[in-house]
Design brief:
Layout: H1 2-45, E1 47-52, E2 55-60, H2 64-84, H3 90-101, H4 106-117, H5 120-126, E3 130-141, E4 147-158, E5 162-176, E6 187-204
Antiparallel strand pairs: 1-2, 3-4, 4-5, 5-6
Helix pairs in contact: 2-3
């Protein structure tokens, strides 16, 4: 009788040990599953899928600090293209200037007002003049905030009889602001000023610059 009791007790002990192992293994498995789910969720959040021409392209999100130099240079370049690209059309000029002023503070508005009051835009329209700008380089110092930049570009002022090429050098500072549809990079140009804007060459319209 005592032998049977010992056997029953031994059997229950084995069952308890086995049950404990099963519970422990289940707990470890659940923790592992939760950890892997978290990893997969984090990985999926860092991926961006873009639909272009009927194709799904995969892109990866990254910390903005890694992209500050690139975004800052593109912000400065975009501002200068909007501000200095002009055609003899009042609505086209206004549309470009409005886009540019969303990217800068009152220092850009002041330069625009000075040009408008001097009759610059009126002369562009009345003289059927087009102005194009090519950005040569944008240097941004991201070590000190707000970020200092210097933009070097060339302008072409195209008239019916001549094409004037001018050098353009500007500088200013970049402050971070909230991103928006009008300001996708989330920067604002401050204390913007023109350091150089002078004629480099003048040639007759219709004559190739290579001859």
């Amino acid at each position: 009788m005592f032998s049977k009791a010992n056997d029953i007790e031994r059997a229950f002990r084995h069952i308890r040990i086995f049950t404990l192992l099963i519970v422990s293994a289940s707990f470890v498995f659940c923790c592992f599953a939760l950890y892997k789910s978290y990893q997969i969720t984090q990985a999926s959040q860092s991926k961006v899928f873009i639909l272009a021409d009927g194709k799904v392209l995969e892109a990866y999100a990254s910390d903005r600090r890694d992209n500050i130099p690139v975004e800052a240079r593109d912000h400065v370049a975009s501002f200068h293209r909007f501000f200095f690209t002009l055609d003899p059309d009042e609505k086209a000029i206004q549309a470009n200037v409005v886009k540019a002023l969303y990217l800068a503070d009152a220092s850009a508005k002041k330069q625009y007002d000075n040009l408008r009051e001097s009759g610059f835009y009126t002369s562009i329209i009345s003289g059927n003049i087009s102005q194009q700008v090519v950005i040569d380089s944008v240097a941004v110092d991201t070590k000190v905030y707000p970020y200092y930049f210097r933009c070097t570009a060339s302008q072409q002022i195209i008239r019916a009889t001549s094409i004037v090429t001018r050098s353009l050098v500007t500088e200013g500072y970049l402050r971070t602001v909230s991103r928006s549809d009008h300001n996708p990079h989330g920067f604002l140009i401050e204390r913007w000023m023109t350091l150089e804007n002078k004629d480099v060459s003048i040639r007759s319209a219709g004559v190739s610059p290579f001859f």
